[in-house]
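User: Sequence recovery, please. Input:
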């Protein structure tokens, strides 16, 4: 298996940008998610052009600070966890990876800090 083979068909959208916001990679789910915006043709473009205010300002702040952002949304009847995290090359900030994971409306939550009953 090549290093990126698993990423292509992973069932959540994965997008990667550099530290200036230029899209470097999208898996198949991300391409289909953003099909109406250009899909794979978005690779090489700046993601700031895709974000209206106030999201654009938030993205600029994230790119400048290298701070992660995590939230949930509902779009098209699907609830998603959006996890945006900086990535690094040799310890130097290189940009962001965004994971967009579909999640059920309700799901179990396990507190691993609490001791379990035997």
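Assistant: Recovered sequence (118 residues):
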């Amino acid at each position: 298996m090549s290093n990126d083979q698993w990423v292509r068909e992973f069932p959540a959208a994965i997008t990667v940008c550099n530290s200036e916001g230029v899209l470097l990679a999208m898996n198949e789910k991300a391409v289909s998610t953003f099909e109406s915006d250009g899909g794979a043709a978005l690779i090489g473009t700046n993601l700031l052009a895709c974000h209206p205010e106030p999201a654009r300002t938030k993205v600029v702040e994230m790119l400048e600070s290298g701070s992660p952002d995590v939230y949930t949304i509902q779009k098209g009847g699907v609830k998603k966890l959006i996890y945006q995290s900086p990535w690094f090359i040799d310890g130097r900030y290189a940009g962001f990876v965004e994971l967009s994971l579909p999640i059920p409306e309700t799901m179990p939550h396990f507190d691993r800090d609490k001791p379990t009953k035997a």
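DSSP finds three helices and five strands in the chain.
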